[in-house]
Amino acid sequence: xxxxxxxxxxxxxxxxxxxxxxxxxxxxxADQWLGLDSTFEFDVLLNIGTILALLWYFRGRITGLARxxxxxxxxxxxxxxxxxxxxxxxxxxxxxxxxxxxxxxGPTVASTLIIVGVIMIWLERRDKSKRQxxxxxxxxxxxxxxxxxxxxxxxxxxxxxxxxxxRLRGFDYKSAAEFSFLLSIPILIGAVCRVLLSQTGxxxxxxxxTEFLVGNLVAFVSGLxxxxxxxxxxxxxxxxxxxxxxxxxxxxxxxxxx
Length: 258
Hints:
The protein is mainly α. It has one domain. It is built from 14 helices and no strands. The protein has helices at 3-16, 23-34, 40-45, 47-57, 59-67, 74-93, 95-98, 106-123, 138-148, 158-168, 173-196, 199-207, 209-234, 240-257. The mean pLDDT is 88.
């Protein structure tokens, strides 16, 4: 792996972690199509940059949650905690299953890109929902959290399916996106810590310190832009363009794979 590889991977991670087109799917395709010398562990560690981007962008909201967890934002805090549990449990118990080669293959990524893309386009036909974050209930957290488990499969998109789940629970696009992005913080931290505590992860950082730092810097900058872009876009637009992009990319992957 060299610096150029790290920059490309960091850019893919930062942009596609929050733009609902699947960061894991794009990283897998980047490795295969561009011949990048990356590993699953390095891809996970790039989440450090995206975590920092989220913490910076939502610093006001996070501070408010910490100060008033038992006050006016108690329902939001509770919803986020409940939504986090399914992925932590299932992801922790079935890590080896979700890392199998067939799950991380081109046809699998293509299929999930297309399926979720179709759902995004269908979602635009629904009535516009109006619920906001201050109306989060435990049932919302559980529903969105269970949906998030699907994102353990590359190509699904964690932000994509959780925004969809939020919309189906009646939240407006902006609120669904904010809940999705806040929810990603504990999930990404858990994934990063798992790799950091492994010998493989520690050896990887020791061997590629410069690439690790550069990749995460690029992921931070591009991730910060992507979060701001999505919040702005979803304040006035929907998921349809991303749905069509996913379908087009999925079809290209299927053609290349066979």
